[in-house]
Structure formats: C-alpha cells, structure tokens
Amino acid sequence: MTQPATANYLALAEEYLQPYIDQLTRPELFRLDVWVTSARFRDAVQTLFDHQWGYLCAITGVDRPFIAVDPETPAQEDQIEVLYHFAEGEGVVTIHVLLPYSRLSIPSLCDLIPSASMYERELMEMLGVDCVGTPSREKLVLPDEWPDGVYPLRKSFKGLNPVNMEEVS
Amino acid sequence: MATVVSASDQSRFIVPIGPQHPALKEPGHFEFTVDGEIITGASARLGYVHRGIEKGAESMNWTQCLYLLERICGICSHIHSIAYCQGLEKLADIEISPKARAMRTLVAELERIHSHMLWWGVAAHEGGFDTLFMYTWRDREIVMDLLETISGNRVNYSVNVIGGVRLDLSPEQVTKIVSGMKKLEERTKHYLEIVTNDSSFLARTRGIGVMTREEAQRLGAVGPTARASNVCRDVRVDAPYAGYHEYPVKIVTDTAGDLKARFVVRIKELFESYRIITNVAQNMPEGELKARRVPRKIPAGNVISRVEAPRGELFYYIESGGGEGPERIKVRTPTLPNWGSVLTMAAGLRLADVPMLLVGIDPCFSCNDRLIRLNPDGKQQTLTWQQLRDRGIEYYR
Fold first, then answer.
1. Which of A131, A132, A161, A129 is nearest to A146 (CA)?
2. Is the ipTM of this complex over 0.90?
3. What distance in Å separates the CA atoms of residue A121 and residue A116, rounded to the nearest whole number?
C-alpha cells in the first residue's frame, strides 16, 4: 500500500535528477533508483538539496568484485558501489555511484549535509573509498591499532591475525 | 583530566570524556574543546563494542541472520527483526497474516515502552534525581514482566520468524496486558507532571541544547530528537508497516526543541503506545501465525526496509544474490544520525550540561558498534585474571 503523495514526491525527484541520470529503475512503488557517474554525483545531490527534497538517510557501500560467469567473459575491474539513500515521507531515492578499484574516490557531501560525516567515515574505513574533502578522517568504529589499507567490508577480507595484526589471506 | 592540544595552540583545552564513562553506562569517547566552562567544539569516537555484524551476516544463511540481527541491540531487538523480516518477505513475495502484523505491532510498542522507561530512569539519574530513577525502573518491570509472559524472555524476544510470528496471546495474557497498561498510564501521568513542573529538573532541561526545526532537518536528526524540534518524521506514520495501517499512531511533536521538549515528547509517546497496545490486545485478528512455506533461497534483488525504533528511524538495505544468504545487509541505526545533532548543539553549553545533553538523544552504543574480533584459526582465546592484569600493566607501562 503506497500513499498518494509518494508518487508525486518521486516524480519530482525524477524531474530534478533528470539531467544527471545514466540509468533509472523503480524497484518498488516507493523507490526510485538512479545511477550517476562520480563526476556528476555532486551536482545530482546539490539539486536535491536545493529543492529541499528529503534528507540523507544512509550511505551504503557494497563491494562488487568481478566474478567471471564463464571463461569467455573478458575480465573487468573490481568495483565498489556506493548508494546514497534520500528519504522524503515514504519515498526513497537511491543514488548509485560505481567506482572502479583504481579510482576509489568520491566528493564529500559534508559541506551540504554535515551529518554525512559519520557515514563517510564509516565508508572510508570499512571499504576504502576516499571521500574527498570530508572534514574528519579519524577512525570511527575500527580499533586504533587496525592496520592501514585493510578494509573489513570488502569481500576479500577473511580476518585479521591477532598476533601480528596482518590480514589473513 | 584535561590535556593541552599542542605547544603552539595552548589556548585550546580538550576534555576527554569516556570511554569509561562518567555519564553513560556504555563506552563512547568524546572530546570536548572548552574555553573555561564553555564548550567550543566536540567530536566522537565510537567502536568500543563494534562487533562486525554486517560482515558476519554475509557468511550466514537467511535464518541465522534473523537471530544475529536481533542481537544488534538488547533494548530494541524486536524492531531489528521486524525490519529484517519484512524486507525479506518483500523479496520472497510472502504475504503475512493480519494476526502476525498485529502481534509484531504489539511487541514493538511494548518494546518502545521498555526502552523509553529505561531511558527515563537514566535521564533522571543524570539529572541527579535518583529517587525518580528507582521509581521508573520499578515501573518498567511491569512491561518487562509482560514481555516475559508473552515470549519467555526479557530481552531478545524472538517473536518474529520469516513469514510471520511464532507466538499468540492467551486470554489471560490479554487481561494482564490491559491491566498493566492501565497501571503504567497512571504512573506516566505523574512523570509528565514531574518533567513539566519540577523546578530542579526544569533547571537542567529548559532552554538547554536547543535545536531549531531547520537545524534538526539539516543535521538529519531522527525519532523523538527530531520530533521535539517540530520535525514531523515518524516512519510509523510516513510509511506504515506491520500493523500500523490498522492501528494508526498519532504523531507527537513539540515546538521548543530543547532538552525538556525531548523529554516531554518521549513521555507523551508512551501514552500512544499504551493506547495501541490495549487496542491490539483487545482486538487481535484471527488467522494463521506464519506463512506455511518459506523458501530456503531468496530471489535475487534488493529491498529497503525502514521502521521506527524507539530512538528513531531504523534503516535496512538488504541485497540477495539469489542464494541461501545475503550478499549485503546494511543497517543504519537511529543513534548514528542523532550524534551529529548532539555534537553540534554542544557548542556554547557548559561542560556540566554534557551528561544531560548526551542522554537527551537516548544514545545506544549497540546501535553504532557492530564488529567481532575473531581469531582466524577459529580457536577461542581465554585469559586468566592474572594474565589480563599483566597485560594491562604492560600496555600502559
């Protein structure tokens, strides 16, 4: 059951985001998922912000290592997908940005949305995505002695050796 | 306790508070930059009880995840399992019965009462009002007993299963619930009196930590913290889930935006919970408890599941690759966005206001912290008291 206002909210968001969108889906009645490039990402968020559409609900990072389905498929670079969820009433707009391992950086949102700081710190330490311009790069949840360059939410992470604090391969 | 930051900047003093905390019963580290008694800046360091639950979930199957996620928080365990179950039910296209929806709502509201009463006691304690703390925790036992009567547990009730609930109410339980709610309602009227009239309490709350509506929106505050600043944000109303279509909630807001408003909003919300619980218990729909068949493999796709936990909006993103377990589960708990509001509001307050300010958002560290440290060889490591002591002495040498 979806509330009537939700469809209007989402139509508005779609209109605002139109110039920046590469791809668009509506997985559920109350959702709008859009894919943008990392270059256009800031402008896309800026337009939602300027129109006061919703608030930043959460930032989800998903590791997407390349998995060859059959040997014929040419190998592609591993990627991390960052999902920015914005909510207004019942409606949720998710902006997806795909980042290849070789260019894991995305502009910070903290100057527009100060509360993004906590989410960006989590994204940086858990998945190793660099949020360019973020005000605090201190560890948020991992221990002080956690080694640099080890990101626990990547699929390749299997654990840490407690004796020498090195990643288990 | 105070430390000078650097030789070149001797005017800045940082007062570290925590992780062994003078104000809270859970570990969090805060650094308050002060000018005399006045706070000029604040920062947070969390993670002392981080257990890696998001990572852990990726190596479990869908059923195991239910029990893992329910253990994110001991206070609001049920709401986590609602968020997870309803997300999964959407992915697997399972319709749950009206009875299961009503049961989920009933337990969620009982949980809200227990959470708010627990917070109310802690708040009274931080305000130096320990008599009140003891009264509130005595009264909280009424709802704890009810939860135990229904589910067999005081925390982690395991009421939800994928596709429904596992428990029903007996007529005796209904009678107990209704009379319990009546008793609590009487007591809560008295508490509302205290929070709005008691002069010593008001001195600690009125006009302190004011957050305007615009600030609350800008900082992304959620739950009672946002509603106390007149932001009408409540997932139960905005996007009704479980049984909130059939048993709608009236949103409680306040315009003041100070600590007092945050206290009043939570206490007034309790009356709504009593009303809903009584209504659900007396008008429990007939029907099946759970869906007959739940697939072991969940179709590929992703869902967003939002629910209103006692502390505010709880957000789940669940992704299935079509297998027996999740590809990714992201949990954004309500305390995380609320920290931002506290750290910003702290500037300009006195250091002595900090405990009340912190308690004003009802912070929950289990909310933030989710990481397990496991030995890679799978062996458990046990330390004797002497070993622990030696290790401590060595560490701080």
1. A161
2. yes
3. 9
For chain B, the distance separating the N- and C-terminal CA atoms, rounded to the nearest angstrom, is 19
Q: Which fold has domain A4-104?
A: Beta Polymerase; domain 2 (3.30.460)
* Partner residue opposite B47 with nearest CB, options A117, A141, A155: A141
pLDDT tens-digit profile, chain B (397 residues): 333 344 445 567 888 887 877 667 778 888 888 888 898 888 888 888 888 899 999 999 999 999 999 999 888 899 999 999 999 999 999 999 999 999 999 999 999 999 999 999 988 888 888 999 999 999 999 999 999 999 998 888 999 999 999 999 999 999 999 999 999 999 999 999 999 999 988 998 999 889 999 888 888 889 999 999 999 999 999 999 999 999 999 999 999 999 999 999 999 999 999 999 999 999 999 999 998 888 899 999 999 999 999 999 999 999 999 999 999 999 999 988 888 778 778 888 888 888 888 877 777 766 555 433 334 455 555 667 677 778 778 877 7
Q: Are strands A91-100 and A31-36 parallel, antiparallel or unpaired?
A: parallel
Q: Which site among B332, B333, B373, B383 would you substitute to test the A interface, given the most A Cβ atoms closer than 10 Å to its Cβ?
A: B332
Domain boundaries, chain A: 4-104
Within 8 A of A159 by CB-CB distance, chain B residues are 374-376
What is the C-alpha to C-alpha distance for residues B14 and B1, in angstroms, rounded to an integer? 9
Task: Name residue A106's beta-bridge partners.
Answer: A131
* Chain B residues 53-72 within an 8 A CB cutoff of chain A: 54-55, 58
Do B43 and A160 make contact, defined as CB atoms within 8 angstroms?
no
Q: Do B219 and A138 touch (CB under 8 A)?
A: no
What chain B holds in terms of domains, given with CATH numbers, is 53-335 (1.10.645.10)
Q: Are strands A130-132 and A105-107 parallel, antiparallel or unpaired?
A: parallel
Residue B122 identity: V
- Sign for the CA dihedral angle at B316, B320, B324, B328 comes to negative
Please tell me if residue B313 touches chain A, with a CB cutoff of 8 Å.
yes
